[in-house]
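User: I'm preparing a small set of examples for a lab meeting where we compare how different chains pack in three dimensions. I only have the primary sequence for this one, and I'd like the structure in token form so I can line it up with the others. Please keep the answer compact; I'll paste it straight into my notes.
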Amino acid sequence: MMIKSLAFISVVAATMSLNACKWSSEQGPVRMNAIHKAQKRGEFNTDEYKIIDITHGNIAKYNKPQVIEGGDLPPVDLSKTYSDAIRPYDQLTVQVVDTAAQGGIGGASGRPAQFGPLEVPQTGKISIPYAGEFNVLGKEITELQNAIQKAYATVFNTAQVSVGRSSRLPLRANVIGIANAPGQQTIDRKGVNLADLVAKSRGTSQEPFTCEYILHRNKRTYKFSNREITTKDIIAQDGDVLEIRKSTERSVTLLGAVNRPGSYPFPNYDSHLDDFIGNAN
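Assistant: Understood. Below is the structure token output for the 281-residue chain.
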């Protein structure tokens, strides 16, 4: 009985081992020839996957995105920069004061009529009682106010219109890397640029001129030096990611007969070799 039991256990173990191979083949890296064979047998669904042979000739195409250095400024999407103009999801209020003795919009009470808050949809169209429908996207508050005033004038010629904005969604950019206070930063006024984002993040944890700044925008990557960040007006826009890291090009490695050999960052923009040797001794 013992021999038969051992034989039975061996068969079960072998069967489980084969099944495990079948299962595990779907849970880890698979050789390309195994995938091609499975495709020929109709056991590999090609509708959900695109098989790419990575070779030395095409690996660069699927590697990290190309970094654009210096040159022209990255293109800016003005709809993603700060503006006082009305944009989707702004909350607007409309107040109408009519001093007419009778027949006015507020009746004889003289109390103002208030509408809102009205959330601006992505279509940009809002409806104001007695005035009609308005497309408000891209319009300044005063421009909308004048348009509503004009619409009311045909019916309530003594009415005075006031339009305000009670809230809006903030525009944000992310600062990551060796900033002193990395994280989300709001684009809360006109003209906020990358240097402002660095300042909002309380600067860098090492000397600014030893840093490089990588801007990720619209699936493209741009690289700037600290000098470019501070002298070029690179406007920030909603969704930007600014990565600050130690520059690999702003250091010198000293070897040989110095007391402290190693890699030393540039002490300033106009560094000389003597400056590095002095630090290493």
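A couple of notes for your slides: Residues 2-24 form the longest helix (23 residues). Residues 56 and 128 are 63 Å apart (CA to CA).

User: Perfect, thanks.
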